[in-house]
C-alpha cells in the first residue's frame, strides 16, 4: 500500500525500475520469438499475423515501456541526490507520471489478452494502421495506450526540468552540475518538445479510427506522408532522448573508475546541447525513400552527418578521461568501456546511412536493424546496465555480485555482437526488415542462425542479471556511503540507501565533482549551509494511482464503443469512457480543493539517523 | 611506435575487406554486387563511407585498447592520477578532423543525390514503366506499349528504365538491390520517380521493403533484362490474342472463377488483379514459388511450373497469408488441375 501512494522520488525510481524491467522482459521474450522464427528459412514457428504483432510490440515495448522507464528510474533515483536536493520539484506529479505510464503500458499489453494486437509496425504508418486495412482494435490499443503512457513521460520531463533549474544546492552552478544531470536536463528539454508532436499525431490517428477522421486516409483526401513527418519529428529526437542519459551515465562511470576528472567537461556539455538541437533537425532522414525530392534529401543528409561531430567529441573525451587514469574494471565500468567501441560502430553506420543515395539501398533492410540495435542496445542498454550496477548500492544499500556480473557482461556482450553484427551484411545482401520468412538458398541461412544464437545468449545474460538481483536482495543492507571509494558527486556523501529526506543538511558545493573536491582537501563530509532542523516533506497520496486507473477505463470504453452496443440513447462504451474521465477529473478536483500542507520530519529523528550511521 | 604498426597492419586488411565485400552475395540480389550503373554509383558511395568509417573505428579501437592496457589499475596502486581539465588543442583537433571527413563524404553524396533524382519520365529514349504496388503483388504497366503485366518486369538491356511508382492500397517500397535502390510507393496521386538500367541480360530479384501486412516479406518480383530484339518480340507477344482452354469444363470454370478478377490477353490492362498472359514463361508463381525443371527441386519453395500453379490455385493462403485470392472462388480438383495445366502452357516465345 505504501508503494501505491508514495511520492518519494527514490521509491518512484524503484517503481519505474520494476515496471520498466518487467516490460523489458516482455519485449525481450518477443525478440527471442522473432529470432526463433527467423532461425531457419521458411519456418512457421509463429504465423505471419502473430509475427507482425511481435515486431510491432517488441519495438513499441522496448522504446516506450522498457528503455524510457528504466532511464526515468535512474533519473528519479539519482538526479535529486546529485543536485543536493531533498526531492523533485513536483512530487505528486512525479507519482502521477509513473502511474499514467504504468497504466498506458498495461493497456497496450492487454491487447494480447483481448486478441487484437497492434500489427502495423512500431512506426504505425498509415494507411496500413487505418480502419480500412486494420479492422481489428490493434491500432486503437497503440494510440490510446501510448497517449496515456505519453502523459507520464511529458510530466516526468517537465518535472526534471523544474527540478534541475530550481533545486540545485548552493554553489552548484550549471557548469558544476554532474554530467548525468546535464544529460538528463537536455533529455527533459527534448521530451518537452518532442512528445507533444507524438501526442498530436496519436490524437489525429485516434480521430481517424474512432470518429472517421480524414487526417491520414488517402481515400478521403488525407495524407499518409503527413503521419510519417509527425511520427519522425517525435521519433528522431526520441532516440536522443534515449541515448543522452546513457551518455551521462557513461561519463560518470568512466570518470569514477578511472579515478579522474571528466576530460573536457565544458565541451561535453556543449556537445550534449548540440546533439539535442541537431536531433530535432534531421527527422526526415528516416524518409529518404519517401520521395521528398533531391533538395530535401541533400539538406537532411548533411544535417545528419553533422551529428557525428559532437558525438565524436564525446567519444574522444571519454577515451582521454581514461588516459592517464587508474582504471578499475568493475562490472559497471566493463559495461561503460564496452559501450565506447560498440557505440562507435553504431555511430559510423549512422553516418553511412546519412548518405541519402546509399540509404536508398540500406533503408528498411537489415542494415538499418543492425544500426539501430547497435546504438540502442549497444549504447543505451549498455549504459543502463552500467548505471544500474553503479548506482545499485545507492538505490538499495547492497552491492550486486561482481563475479556473476562479469560473467553476465561477457555473455551479454558477445551475444549482442553475434546477434547484430551479421545483420549489417544480411541487409546489404538483400534481406529486407520485418520479414516473417526468407526463402531458402538466398545465402541468408547461416547469418540468421548465428544471429539467433546471439539473441539467445543475450536472453541468458538477462536471466543471469535477474539471478544476480535475487541473490543480492538476500544480502544485508550494509553498504557504506561511498562504496566504490572513488565517488565524485554528491550522492556518495549520504547513506546508502538515502534516507527519506536525502540530505539532513543541504551541502555547499565548492567546485565541479563536489564530493571529490572535499575529499582531496581532506574533508570527510560536505560543508553544510544550514543547521539541522525539521525538514518539510510532502504527504503520500493515492490520487495519482486512481487517476491512472481512470484513464485506463476511459481508453477501454472509447475503444470498444462500437461493439458494446447502446443502453437507451447512450452507447455503453462512451458511458464507460466518460465514467473513467470523471474519475480522473474528480481526482484533479480533489487535489485542487483539499489543502495538503505535507508534514515535517523532526530534528530528533534526523539526529537519531545520524547517530546510527556514525 | 607499436600503435602505428598495428594501424599499418590493419589498413590493408580493411582495404581487402572492402574489396571482398564488393563481390559479396548473389549476383541477382546483392547491393554489394551491382549489375547496373545506378547500383554501382550507390556502391561507390558505400565504399567511400565504409573506408572512412573503418578508419575512424580503427583509431578509436586502437586508442581504447592502448588506454585500457596502459592505464589499468595495478594491485596495491593507490596513487591519485592528475585531475586534467581538458585540452583545447586536442579538442579542436577532434572537432576539425571529423568535419573534414564529413566534407569528403558530403560532396559525393550531394552529387549523387541530384544525379539519381534525374527525371526520365518525359524522355522518349527511356522505357516508361508505371509500377503499382498491391497487397502482395506488383503491377507493371508499359503505357507506350499498351501492356499491363504482373510480377515480372521485362526490360531491354539498352535503355534507361524510367519508373513512376504508386500504390493501390497501403505503403510499399520498390527495391531491386542489384540494380537500384528503393523508392516508396505512396497513395493518392503522389507519384514517385526513379530510374535504372540493366545492361547485362539476366533475372534480378526485387522486393517490397515497407511493412505492408502479413505477407510483406513474400512480396517478391523479378526484373528480367533481355536483349532489345527479344524485348520487341515480347511486346508483340503480350498484345496478341490468347486462346481459352480447349476442355469446355475447364474453360467455363476458368472464365467464371478466374477471369472475374484476372485478365488475360489484350483486355488485361483494365483488370485490378494480376494479368495472367504469359504466366508460363515467368520465373515464379506468386513471386515466391520458383519454377524449376522436374528433378531439379532443391529448396522447399521450388517445384515444377505445373505443381507450383496447382498448389497455388488450391491454397494460396498456405503460401501468402492474407492475400486477396484466398476464398474468392471454389474449384473442384479436376478444374484446378485443368487450369494449372492450361496456365502452365500459357507461354510466350520471345527469348
Automatic annotation (TrEMBL), chain A:
SUPFAM superfamilies: Cytochrome c oxidase subunit I-like (SSF81442). PROSITE patterns: COX1, COX1_CUB. GO terms for biological process: aerobic respiration; electron transport coupled proton transport; respiratory electron transport chain. Its EC number is 7.1.1.9. The chain crosses the membrane at residues 12-34, 54-79, 91-114, 141-167, 179-207, 230-250, 262-283, 295-320, 332-352, 372-392, 404-429, 449-471, 542-561, 567-590. It is an enzyme of class 7 (translocase). Its main location: membrane. Residues 1-510 form the Cytochrome oxidase subunit I profile domain. It is found in: Cell membrane. GO terms for cellular component: plasma membrane. It catalyses: 4 Fe(II)-[cytochrome c] + O2 + 8 H(+)(in) = 4 Fe(III)-[cytochrome c] + 2 H2O + 4 H(+)(out). One of its GO terms (molecular function) is cytochrome-c oxidase activity. Keywords: Cell membrane, Copper, Electron transport, Heme, Iron, Membrane, Metal-binding, Respiratory chain, Translocase, Transmembrane, Transmembrane helix, Transport. It is a multi-pass membrane protein. It comes from the Bacteria. Pathway: Energy metabolism; oxidative phosphorylation. Belongs to the heme-copper respiratory oxidase family. Cytochrome c oxidase is the component of the respiratory chain that catalyzes the reduction of oxygen to water. Subunits 1-3 form the functional core of the enzyme complex. CO I is the catalytic subunit of the enzyme. Electrons originating in cytochrome c are transferred via the copper A center of subunit 2 and heme A of subunit 1 to the bimetallic center formed by heme A3 and copper B. This is Cytochrome c oxidase subunit 1. It comes from Candidatus Pristimantibacillus lignocellulolyticus. The lineage of its organism: Bacteria, Bacillati, Bacillota, Bacilli, Bacillales. The gene is ctaD.
From TrEMBL, chain B:
It is a multi-pass membrane protein. Its cofactor is Cu cation. Residues 23-120 form the Cytochrome oxidase subunit II transmembrane region profile domain. SUPFAM superfamilies: Cupredoxins, Cytochrome c, Cytochrome c oxidase subunit II-like, transmembrane region. Residues 235-347 form the Cytochrome c domain. Residues 124-237 form the Cytochrome oxidase subunit II copper A binding domain. One of its GO terms (molecular function) is oxidoreductase activity. GO terms for cellular component: plasma membrane. Keywords: Copper, Electron transport, Heme, Iron, Membrane, Metal-binding, Respiratory chain, Translocase, Transmembrane, Transmembrane helix, Transport. It is an enzyme of class 7 (translocase). It is found in: Cell membrane; Membrane. Its EC number is 7.1.1.9. Pfam families: COX2, COX2_TM, Cytochrom_C. The keyword Zinc does not apply. NCBIfam families: CoxB (TIGR02866). Subunits I and II form the functional core of the enzyme complex. Electrons originating in cytochrome c are transferred via heme a and Cu(A) to the binuclear center formed by heme a3 and Cu(B). PANTHER family: CYTOCHROME C OXIDASE SUBUNIT 2 (PTHR22888:SF10), CYTOCHROME C OXIDASE, SUBUNIT II (PTHR22888). Belongs to the cytochrome c oxidase subunit 2 family. This is Cytochrome c oxidase subunit 2.
